[in-house]
Structures are given as C-alpha cells and as structure tokens.
Amino acid sequence: MIVILLVAAVLAESFVKKIYPNVSNYDPPESFDLRIKYGDAILPVRDQGTCGGSWAMSVADNVGDYLGIQKCSRGPMSAQEIISCDTKDKQCKKGGTAIGAWLYILNKVGLATDDCIPYKSQNGTVPNCPSHCANGTNVFKTQLDGAYQVGEITEESIQISLINYGPLVSYMDVYQDFKDYTGGIYQHKQGKVVGGLYMNILGWGIENDVKFWIGKNVWGTGWGEKGYFRILRGTNESNCESEITYGIPICKW
Fold it and tell me: Global pTM?
C-alpha cells in the first residue's frame, strides 16, 4: 500500500496540482455541514459491495457532489467506468488510489454518469471497459477543470478547503472496530488494521467538547449513521488527515 501511494504521488506530480490554502487570520465556525448548506445537491450514500473500489467510488461521488453544488447535477457519476477502465489501479482489489482515479479522469478527458455506465461490481467482478453507454448511446463525459491535493495538511487547511471548494476525498486506515461502528465519534481503540478506505469529508463539528469530522462512506446506508460517520478531528485519527484531494468538474452540457 505505501509503495503504491508513493508511486502514484510521483506520477501525479504534473497533473494533480498541490494547493496550499491561506489559513492566516482564519476563524472557523464551530460546526459546518455541506449536507445542511447544499441539501439534495449532496448525493445519497452508495454501497460498493464486496468490491474494494472506495478509491473510485469516493472520487466519483466527489465529482457528483461538486456538480450538484454548482447547480448542474447529473446524478451519481460512474465509479464503474473508473474501476473497469483504469486497469493501473487494481480495480476491485486493494491498492487503488484516489490520485490514480483523478489521473484517469484527467487523462481520459472526463467521467461518464452512473446512468450511462452503471455500477456492476457489487459482487467483486469487474466488467470490461465499455465503449458505449448501457443503452447503446455514445458516452458523454464531464470534464475536470482540475484536480488538486491539499499540501501541508492541517485541521485549518481542511476546514477552509471544505468552505471554499466543497467535499474532500480522504484516505484512512480501517481497523476492525471501524467496520463494527454503529454511531458516535469514532476513535480507534482495539483491533489491527484490516484495510484502507477512501471517503469524502463533508464537514465538522463538536460534541461534548470532542471535535470531529463528518465522513461519507461507501458501505451503504445500513452501516454507521445511515452511511455517514463522525471521526475524531485534529489528531490524524486513523491517518484520515494524511491525504486530501478533490476535483473541480466543468459545469457544461
């Protein structure tokens, strides 16, 4: 996993731009939630099934949510296209990266909608990369204005990026007690690392003096807090503050 992430970061150097938010004189609100600010523009939680494709689905969700925020929602975007067509990034196997998914979208000049290329990898199988939409029509792709990686990650740089841009794709380590999470503010207490996960950070808050991030997972609405979770903020809990990326799609039909 570490080797793959390092290689992906080197390959992305010329494509995924590093951005350094100005946090001087920044006074963040106590809480912020993109679901409250933008309502239905934030798309519903999806379920990746047994496919280890959070790297693709979280990036596709990021694009879809940004389009909704820009008032030109196209519904869910195609995680399946990334999984089936980006063969460099392990598809349903562990090891794909968000940076790899952003590179795929940039190099293939966009991403199709889920209506065009629907998700079929719930059971871990990977269909061949399609040349047309499922209904036989030509594929229309939403292009990116750019893809970005937050440099010098701090609590404040994540907060200001959420306010200025929107959802942020974040990597985190997964422990057994996270898989068993049913609600509350998550902090790893027992068990070993059993995998990794890419998710979207949608905001932050504080409860009983404990600070947290709001995360959007890809494990369906039956997990956690209806598919969402809260995780300890400001301590790099489970490495969730170690890799932050996002893309800016072009709102054009």
Answer: 0.92
∠ CA 121-123-125, rounded to 5°: 55
CATH number at residue 159: 3.90.70.10
Residues 131-160 have pLDDT tens digits of 999 999 999 999 999 999 999 899 999 999
* Tokens 């939630």 belong to residue: 33
Neighbours of 18 (CB within 10 A): 13
- The candidate with the shortest Cα–Cα distance to 74, out of 108, 20, 112, 23, is 112
Q: Comparing C-alpha atoms, which of 139, 119, 114, 100 is closest to residue 48?
A: 119
Phi-psi bin for 218: left (phi > 0), alpha (psi -120 to 50), beta? alpha
Domain enclosing residue 163, as ranges: 2-249
**Contacts of residue 111, Cβ cutoff 8 Å, sequence gap at least 6:** 60, 63, 77, 78, 81, 82, 105, 141, 142, 144, 249
Task: Please give the tally of structural domains in the chain.
Answer: 1
Tokens of 103: 């590179």
